[in-house]
From TrEMBL:
Pathway: Amino-acid biosynthesis; L-serine biosynthesis; L-serine from 3-phospho-D-glycerate: step 2/3. GO terms for biological process: glycine biosynthetic process, by transamination of glyoxylate; L-serine biosynthetic process; pyridoxine biosynthetic process. Keywords: Amino-acid biosynthesis, Aminotransferase, Cytoplasm, Pyridoxal phosphate, Pyridoxine biosynthesis, Serine biosynthesis, Transferase. It catalyses: O-phospho-L-serine + 2-oxoglutarate = 3-phosphooxypyruvate + L-glutamate; 4-(phosphooxy)-L-threonine + 2-oxoglutarate = (R)-3-hydroxy-2-oxo-4-phosphooxybutanoate + L-glutamate. Its EC number is 2.6.1.52. It comes from the Bacteria. It is an enzyme of class 2 (transferase). It comes from Acidipropionibacterium jensenii. This is phosphoserine transaminase. Catalyzes the reversible conversion of 3-phosphohydroxypyruvate to phosphoserine and of 3-hydroxy-2-oxo-4-phosphonooxybutanoate to phosphohydroxythreonine. Residues 142-330 form the Aminotransferase class V domain.
Amino acid sequence: MSELKVPVDLLPSDPRFGSGPSRIRREVIQALAAPGSVMGTSHRKPPVKDVVHSIRSGLAELYRLPAGYEVALGNGGATLFWSMAACSLVAHRSANGVYGSFSRKFATTLQKAPFLADPAIFEAPAGRLALPRAAHAVGTYAWAQNETSTGVVAPVQRPEGIDESALVLIDATSAAGGVDADISATDAYYFSPQKNFASDGGLWVAVLSPAAIARSADLTSSARWVPDILNLTLAVENSRKDQTLNTPAIATLVMLEAQISWLLEHGGMAWAANRTHTSSGVLYRWAQDNPLTSPFVQDPALRSPVVVTIDLDHSIDSAQLCAIARENGILDIEPYRGLGRNQIRVGTFSSVDPEDVRALVACLDWILERMPRVGA
């Protein structure tokens, strides 16, 4: 145990800075056990179906959905949706932007599907961005709006020159609810709700265009065998009834609804995007000004407002820094395990108060001034 004890008056009011799952507002947790809670009731009955309806209508308002777009949801997280997309949205071949662990995982899922051709891969090293471009025999284009592993944010737009019938799939797991997007540029804007939407995993949500819904109906009614859990058309049919195919985690639904309502009450996506930009800006300015730190993503235009990755000088042991922080109650600033870099990673999702980020910076300064140096 370290003898370094951060002064109490420096500590953030809420010390949780994980990049997933993110902090859940305490009043939401308390509401789960409040009188009248739907916890422990049937997901096929009106009280829970009302929650699902509120989620769907709230997301439609939050993202200003174009005519014909629908919100669908189902069991499993974004990982399951990758397999669902392979079965229900990709007809023959996709083109994928790969620039981190999670964008790579979706490309790998499509590559392993025995009924699909190998995807066209557009790849960049960690910390940079590669978007898919128009490619031969490609009917689906996919990338992540925010690469959680590296802290790279990507634009949401239709690639130039692609066929009008091509679909654009955006993994928005760590961006939705904290980074705005033009939904009309997408056909499936999907996420699991454990980041900006401050809920638990085990659920996927997708905003679908009429073209995506039609593509799914065509593929799932063809000779291709699709398991029910991976059948997007079946999920859409259930969503229209404000339910999921199988029993969902009710708490996840309740927390998601509460966060959507909270975001709308405070000003919607404009407010959320400004809040995450403010929080992440505190960290990026600190990383640039402190001689012991630097932003991992070098291009300012690519720096995520919701997942901030910061490299540390070789004289600072990131594992020791994170351990000292944890001993002082500051949680989950460890780097992404797959990068293997001497760095920290801080979630600045919508639920994170910018004042807590300012307090975090003060605590990190205090620790860095006092912790032992590598090789000293």
